[in-house]
Each structure stands twice: as structure tokens, then as C-alpha cells.
Amino acid sequence: MKRLAIFTFAAAFAFQGLAYAQDDVLKAAAAAVAAGYENGQKEEEAKPSNWIRFIDTNLGFNQTGLFNWAAGGYSTITLSAGLDAQAKYTKDLMTWNNRLQLNYGFLWSQDKVDLIQKSNDRIYLESRWGYKTAPTSKWNYTASFDFRTQFTNSRTNYAKNDEGKWNGDLKSGFLSPAYANIALGMEWVPVQWFNINLAPVTGSLNMCTIPELRKSYGMPEIATGEYGSALFQLGMQVKMNFKVTFNDVLNYETQFVWFTDYLNRPFRNNRINWDNKISWKLAKYFVVGLDTWLIYDPLVKFKDEPKSKVQFKEFLSVNFSYTFGSKTKK
Fold this sequence. Notes:
mainly beta; Outer membrane phospholipase (ompla), Chain C; twelve-stranded antiparallel barrel
């Protein structure tokens, strides 16, 4: 009995010692794992990212209500939404900048209670690859792509037909028109907020998928009264970008694009796009925005008009604005 007690005591003592030893081993292993994780995390945090990615979103709403208003007028509701997504990659002498701008808005008016009219519609995609000629140079070799079109059909001169439905003259639609450009050239970047791209080799593809609009947008005639859906142009493009910020409150951004066609009256047959964007930050999430777009395209003819005209659109709105991502490198 005495031997059994001694054996039981010894076994318990050994088991307790083993438990303590095992606990020390587990603690040491956990500490090693934690130390390795912290070191890996520090190394990962210390390694800077080559990307800057962010998305600016905005939502605007305007409403006018008239009740027994002697001066006349109509109650209206306007809703607009916008997205500006940018992804910029920089490594050594190479840069790759991508930007997608989407805008859409519609208008409801009391005089057309069962009709939603489009007030803003735009798709604009840009992608530019650049490579510096030297580490301290202000010049880059560049290859760029850009694409413009709109989401939905647009009509004017609305009137009700015999069935009581609204109808109007069709002016545009998805891929009607659409413009895609591929440009090879050089870019001069004297300062961070200004650059100009000179692309003496630029291929431009103009498209129009809606047959009744093809003549208005300068598509080539393929038969009597029939026009093709695409027109290829080879020419030169000059694109200028300017962006400045005042006190982190007022922002102004502009882009001017000039294109001339080598194949059809070069330096006289010129297409121009001039975009302007002004934003004034009222509060943390509220911004007043003014956007303008100017277009001159010698191929575009308006109905019953023999000559092309300068096209101009402006859009003023008060928006709720929010940014996803960061505009600086981490």
C-alpha cells in the first residue's frame, strides 16, 4: 500500500511537470508564431504599393414644386448620379493610368407626367501607358486608348402620337455614336498638374449602330440611301490635361482634345472635345459641381442643317459625394 502511494505521488508529480513543460513549449511556439507574423506584417507594411486606386461617387437631387402658382411653370424632379474611378500604377520609369467616368441623370416634369426625359448621359474610358525617356526627363513615350459613348437613347421634340404615347426625334443611343481612339506618341509633363500628349499616329474608329442616325454622324455611304456603321480615320491627336486644387475646397479640371484626319482634308477637318469640371466642397460629403462639355465634329450634321455646329452642354448640381479608396500611395 505504501509503495502504491509512493508510485501514485511520483506519477502525479511527473504528469504535473510534463504539463508545465508542455505549457511552456506551447507558449514559446505561440510567441514565435506571433513574432514571425509581426515581422512579416511589418515587412509587408514597409513595402510601398505601386498602385493608387479610388472611386469618387456622387448623387444629386433637385426638386421644384408649384401649387397654385400665378406666375406659371411646372413642378420638376431631377436626379443625377456620377462615378469617377481611377487606377494609377507607377514603377521605376513606367506609368499606367486608367480612368472611367460615368454620368447619368433624368428629369420628370409635371407637363409630361408619364415621361422620364434624359438630362445627362456619358461613358468615357481612358487608359494611358507611359515610359520615361530618362529618370529625370519630363518626356514619356506613350500609348493610349480612349472610348466615348452614352448609355441610352435620347430624343427631342416630344409629342403624343395617336395612341397617346410620347414620341420624339431620335438623336442618339448606345454606341450611336461611339468614338474609340488608339494613339502613339510622346507626353510632356513639366509639372504634376499639367501634361500634354502629342500623338502623330492616331487611329480613330467612329461607330453608329442605329441605321437612321448613321448619315447624321458622318458614316460612309455604301449604297444609295444606305450608310455603313463604322468609319475609320487615321490622323494626329493632341490631348492636354490641367488640374488644380485651391485650399482642398475648390477644384478645377479640364481636358482639351484636338484630332485631325490625314485621310480627309488634314488640318482643316478637325474634331474638338473640351471638357471642364469645377467642384466646390461645401461640407464633408456635399459638393457643388459644374460640368461643361464642348464638341465640334465636322462629320456631325443636324437635321435640316447643311453645316456642322458647335455643341455645348453644361450641368450644375448639388451632390452628396463619397470616395472609396485612397488618392495617395500607402
